[in-house]
Design goal:
This protein is mostly beta strands. It is built from four helices and 17 strands. The strands form four sheets. A five-stranded mixed β-barrel has the order 1-2-3-5-4. It has a five-stranded antiparallel sheet with strand order 8-7-6-9-10, with no helix packed on it. The chain has a five-stranded mixed barrel with strand order 11-12-13-15-14.
Length: about 300
């Protein structure tokens, strides 16, 4: 079975027509998804499964709820969003009505056992960005299970906040950087190309656009692509976050330097999607710096 971040695969959306479909789902032990309609006062989740509502009892809402390691905000925040679940049975209510009982916790435990625990360091996976904080990006790596990409793992070129690279809800590719006592840390920057791969897109004498990432006393760092930045001289009215046109004055591979001259400030525009140089498989060792460079920038996985 392949496991997906919640909301990433429409084929998992439950569209049961009657109770026979529900019985088949119980027997199959398949993982489905449905949109949460309501989180009631007991923090049970009510889920649209087609012809009826299913109920995920509070304790079955996520791994960690029963253990007290996950707070109830993790359930409340799911209203209006899709969640994964397994159909586990029926329950007769006090008014005689039959409820369909679902478990997100069981789906997550299955995902952990059959997928996440088997991931190798350096393995590339699909993930969904769920939340951005100053220190990094939280990602759904499967069935609503969250992990982290630290900010320094998002790109080689310097950024001040993960929102400069990603947006919430975005599907991305990333690689497992390390495991530490069960804690998984992921990385993105190795998939976005080496210095040489990115620099090969540009030539001395060209004028191109880039984003001002920081303004220092000695110059302005302008990002040309997510893993490549150059340095321009200080100019008036230049601020971090602006898109500017820059003249490429020189490209120096052995020093990993690109010297720029700011020509003008450009109108704001939507950022292009990320371009991956590596998008599948497993990375054991990645070297960003060119051969013969003054310093070595590399990643060893595991």
């Amino acid at each position: 079975m392949k496991f997906y971040p919640e909301g990433a695969n429409d084929a998992l959306l439950a569209e049961f027509c009657d109770y026979s479909d529900v019985k088949s789902a119980i027997d199959s032990k398949e993982i489905f998804e449905g949109r949460v309609l309501l989180c009631d006062r007991q923090h049970n989740l009510h889920v649209d499964i087609g012809f009826a509502e299913g109920i995920i009892p509070r304790g079955e809402g996520a791994v960690g709820i029963l253990e007290g390691t996950v707070r109830d905000i993790a359930l409340i925040s799911k209203v209006g969003k899709r969640v994964c679940f397994r159909v586990v049975g029926f329950q007769r209510e006090s008014d005689g009505k039959k409820s369909i009982i679902l478990s997100r916790r069981m789906a997550q435990l299955q995902c952990i056992d059959e997928y996440i625990n088997l991931l190798a360091c350096g393995e590339i996976i699909d993930a969904r960005v769920t939340r951005l904080e100053g220190f990094g990006a939280f990602i759904d790596i499967g069935c609503g299970i969250n992990s982290l990409i630290p900010i320094d793992m998002l790109s080689v070129s310097r950024i001040s906040h993960p929102r400069e690279r990603l947006h919430e809800g975005e599907m991305i590719k990333c690689a497992l950087k390390s495991r530490d006592d069960g804690k998984l840390t992921f990385t993105l920057k190795e998939l976005l190309g080496t210095w040489e791969e990115n620099a090969a897109r540009f030539f001395v004498g060209e004028t191109v656009t880039g984003i001002v990432r920081s303004v220092e006393s000695y110059g302005v760092f302008v990002e040309l692509t997510p893993n490549l930045a150059g340095l321009a001289e200080l100019g008036a009215q230049i601020e971090a976050g602006q898109r500017v046109s820059v003249f490429i004055k020189s490209i120096i591979p052995e020093r990993m330097k690109i010297k720029l001259v700011v020509v003008d400030v450009c109108p704001k525009q939507a950022e292009p999607p990320l371009e991956y140089r590596i998008s599948s498989g497993t990375i054991r060792h990645w070297r960003y710096s060119p051969s013969g460079a003054d310093r070595v920038v590399e990643t060893v996985f595991g």
